[in-house]
Design goal:
49% of the residues lie in helices and 11% in strands. The strands form four sheets. A seven-stranded parallel β-sheet has the order 3-2-1-4-5-7-11, sandwiched between helices. A two-stranded parallel ribbon has the order 6-13. Helix 2 packs across helix 12. It is globular. This is Fatty acyl-CoA reductase.
């Protein structure tokens, strides 16, 4: 039975703790680091592991990519001239790399960290759906292994929090439960997943490609990742390698290391604090917003009736902190605790709501062109299946492209540049459909019973307690998309 949880307990837990965070330069990492520093200024240290050649470079990167962002505005205002001093006291930038043995740290640094570490939070990942297979394996799988090895050296470790993705369970159209993935399990019946074999396969493939140029190697590695993912039943190399990372963590953790796996769905902009609408990077659903804003796309692959499972970034960070406290120092844990930070079960929202909110926003806040004239809104055409979209692309673009190709041959290459440009764009769009299509029509529903049980222990009795809200039922999606997320995307992404 979980103990009751409130803001005071979470804040009190963080006091005096030494916390290692990987992936702090990413969207979710920044949100978590800022939140901890803001609610508990008496945290002992926050060690941020970043890729850099040396300590000064690591410090500079953290300053530019983390501390220097608008997200830290409330903290900056709170401390005024003392802000830099506060940050210097609490933040330690580590030049390292989770893809390397010992996290890329020298022995004395590693030993000192292990002696004092209380909590490890692994957010580092490559989230590219079409990443090189070797890179995805290095970061999303081997990174987990190296962190687990370090965690076992930490005598006083109270918690290892690993951020995965809800989509590790594949493209099932059923209710997807919060349960650990079984090592060796594949989504294809009769196929076994052997992580060591995948690593050997990549190593052998790289040897065969050693004589090719860099572009050929990159393309081959990307295609290998997609091929291996689909061989085992996953849609892309990102969710495939994240699944392997979870499996490896389950194998290596042992029974006496408290481990929590947090699986968010599509993480969207900050809903409440510190900066509503703040976002970094483009999420899959934001392609629609950006394309509509720039009027660069007239059609979109997606069924407006499909539920798009998304959750604001600050809610994910809040859930992580609550779970961290709930399971800290939990010994003899038979399996890792799994939480799915999702919305499709408790408060589902469809693409239609996003599209409607976007239309409302642009009607009330019309765009103005370089000539000062208002850009009229236009309705987009949606394709409810990939075959329909492919047929449209063939008729609207492929056939005219073939006619241009014939004309180019007859006119001795007069249209070479035009043809090559359009051909490249057509192939790029069709590639995006291949890689991202499954997500546009994902019909699974993520169970969040474990997270709901944790939510039920939260005492929402004060404004301070509300700062740790992670209940998707409290989200008014129309209002959030219209007032917060869409303006945030336009301000921070669509510059």
């Amino acid at each position: 039975m979980m103990e009751s949880m409130d803001a005071a307990r979470i804040i009190g837990y963080l006091k005096g703790k030494s916390i290692l965070v990987t992936g702090s330069t990413g969207f979710l990492g920044k949100i978590l680091v800022e939140k901890i520093l803001r609610v508990q200024p008496h945290v002992h240290k926050m060690y941020l592991l970043v890729r850099a050649i040396d300590a000064p470079s690591a410090k500079q990167r953290v300053q530019q990519e983390v501390i220097g962002t608008e997200l830290f505005g409330l903290l900056r205002d709170k401390y005024g001239e003392g802000f830099d001093s506060f940050i210097g006291e609490k933040i330690v930038a580590l030049a390292g790399d989770i893809t390397g043995e010992d996290l890329g740290l020298d022995a004395p640094t590693l030993h000192d960290l292990a002696k004092h570490m209380d909590v490890i939070v692994n957010i580092a990942a490559t989230t590219n759906f079409y990443e090189r297979y070797d890179v995805s394996l290095d970061v999303n799988v081997m990174g987990v292994k190296h962190l687990c090895q370090f965690a076992k050296q930490c005598a006083n470790l109270k918690m290892l929090m690993h951020v995965s993705t809800a989509y590790v369970s594949g493209d099932s159209a059923e209710v997807i439960l919060e349960r650990p993935l079984k090592p060796g399990s594949s989504l294809r019946e009769g196929v076994r997943l052997d992580i060591d074999a995948e690593l050997r396969l990549v190593a052998d493939a790289k040897k065969d490609l050693i004589d090719g140029d860099a572009a050929e190697q990159k393309k081959a590695m990307k295609q290998l990742g997609l091929q291996r993912a689909r061989h085992h039943g996953w849609s892309n190399s990102y969710v495939f390698t994240k699944a392997m990372g979870e499996m490896l963590l389950g194998q290596l953790r042992g029974d006496d290391m408290p481990v929590v796996i947090m699986r968010p769905s599509v993480i969207t902009s900050v809903r409440a604090d510190p900066v509503p609408g703040w976002i970094q990077g483009t999420r899959t659903i934001d392609t629609l917003i950006i394309g509509y804003a720039k009027q660069s796309i007239s059609c979109f692959l997606g069924d407006l009736s499909v539920v798009v499972d998304c959750i604001p970034g600050d809610m994910v960070a809040n859930a992580m902190m609550a779970a961290m406290v709930a399971h800290s120092e939990e010994r003899l844990q038979a399996a890792a605790a799994v939480y799915q930070a999702t919305s499709s079960l408790r408060n589902p929202v469809t693409y239609a709501v996003l599209y409607r909110s976007g239309g409302r926003h642009f009607e009330e806040h019309p765009r103005v062109g370089d000539d000062g004239q208002v850009i009229p809104n236009r309705h987009m055409r949606f394709f409810s299946s990939i075959p329909r979209f492919r047929l449209y692309m063939v008729l609207a673009f492929k056939l005219p492209l073939e006619i241009l190709h014939v004309a180019n041959i007859l006119l001795c290459g007069l249209f070479d540049k035009l043809y090559n440009d359009y051909s490249r764009k057509y192939k790029f769009v069709m590639h995006l459909v291949d890689v991202y299509g499954p997500f546009a029509f994902f019909r699974g529903c993520f169970d969040d019973t474990n997270l709901e049980r944790l939510r039920s222990t939260m005492a929402m009795k004060s404004p301070q307690d509300e700062m740790f809200n992670f209940d998707p039922k409290s989200i008014d999606w129309d209002d959030y998309f219209y007032r917060t997320h869409i303006p945030g995307v336009l301000k921070y992404v669509c510059k």
